[in-house]
Amino acid sequence: MSGITIALSKGRIFDETLPLLEAAGIVPAENPESSRKLIIGTNQPDVRLVIVRASDTPTYVQYGAADLGIAGKDVLLEHGGEGLYQPLDLEIARCRLSVATREGFDYETASRPGGRIRVATKYIESAKAHFAEKGVHVDLIKLYGSMELAPLVGLADAIVDLVSTGGTLRANGLVEVEHIRDISSRLVVNQASLKLKHERIQPMLDAFAGAIGSKENA
Ligand code: ATP
Ligand code: MG
């Protein structure tokens, strides 16, 4: 396949990527929200989009099934980034990775060095690294969604999850007790594609980089 395949997830990443694609002269032929197609053409005959689950984007790019992709740093930290070149922070889909507990839970004491805590999360690798760095023993429970429920029903003391406005936490009587890191989405490029298709890919990277800059100046 000599064309360029770009892996994107539906929802906020797709929506926030549209202006960047447009800056690179790429306009999707269809909207993946209304189309059931998983492969979507563009106005550029040699560029197509593949619509994947957000957490699968690095995998498609790692194996070269897509040349480029856009993935949240949260997803990249879990994946590990093997085989991926991460040239650009696109500064889209911004949020933060945080620890939250039920109101009134004594996180201060539980998270002292040598302490022990039960944490439910989708972000096992990030949570493991965070508590290891603090010297806290952590029992991790893997969940795939609705993390906020876990502390309410006694499954866990705390959750590690993405927070943007904090509205979902508040609505469930949870409080953000620790900010782990800021999260935004990155462009990821297959390392072999970057070499073999450099002439086609580099101008796209330059256009994306320019579009981030101009957004900041706007
Ligand atoms: P799914 O919704 O299919 O279970 P997902 O939650 O990983 O998967 P999205 O909700 O589309 O997929 O999130 C994609 C990326 O957007 C995340 O990996 C993260 O980087 C970022 N993100 C997630 N939630 C928020 C949020 N509330 N505000 C801003 N960015 C977010
Ligand atoms: Mg989601």
Number of helices: 9
How many strand units? 11
CATH fold annotation of the largest domain: D-Maltodextrin-Binding Protein, domain 2
Q: What is the second-level CATH architecture of the largest domain?
A: 3-Layer(aba) Sandwich
What's the domain count?
2
Secondary-structure-derived class: alpha/beta
* Helical amount: 25-40%
Main beta sheet: 6 strands, mixed
Mean pLDDT: 96
Using only C-alpha atoms, the radius of gyration works out to: 19 Å
Find the CATH superfamily of the largest domain: Periplasmic binding protein-like II
Order of helices and strands: EHEEHEHEEHEHEHEHEEHH
Bound molecules: adenosine-5'-triphosphate, magnesium ion
3D shape: elongated
Strand order of the largest sheet: 2-3-1-4-11-5
Provide the β-strand percentage band.
25-35%
Cα separation of the termini: 38 Å
Segments where pLDDT lies below 50 for 5+ residues? none
CATH class of the largest domain: Alpha Beta
EC number: 2.4.2.17
Organism: Pseudazoarcus pumilus
Subcellular location: Cytoplasm
Keywords: Amino-acid biosynthesis, ATP-binding, Cytoplasm, Glycosyltransferase, Histidine biosynthesis, Nucleotide-binding, Transferase
Please explain how this structure is put together:
The structure is a single chain. The chain is α/β, with parallel strands linked by helices. It folds into two domains: 4-93 and 184-217, Periplasmic binding protein-like II (D-Maltodextrin-Binding Protein, domain 2, 3-Layer(aba) Sandwich); 95-183, Periplasmic binding protein-like II (D-Maltodextrin-Binding Protein, domain 2, 3-Layer(aba) Sandwich). It has helices at residues 12-23, 57-62, 73-79, 107-110, 124-134, 149-152, 167-171, 191-196, 198-217; strands at residues 4-8, 39-41, 47-51, 68-72, 84-89, 95-102, 116-121, 137-142, 158-163, 174-183, 185-190. Helix 1 packs across helix 9 (198-217). The radius of gyration is 19 Å and the shape is elongated. It starts with a strand and ends with a helix. The structure holds adenosine-5'-triphosphate (ATP) and magnesium ion. Adenosine-5'-triphosphate binds at residues 9, 11-13, 53-55, 72, 74-75, 93-95, 145, 162, 164, 183, 185. InterPro entries: ATP_PRibTrfase_cat (IPR013820), ATP_PRibTrfase_CS (IPR018198), ATP_PRibTrfase_HisG (IPR001348), ATP_PRibTrfase_HisG_short (IPR024893).
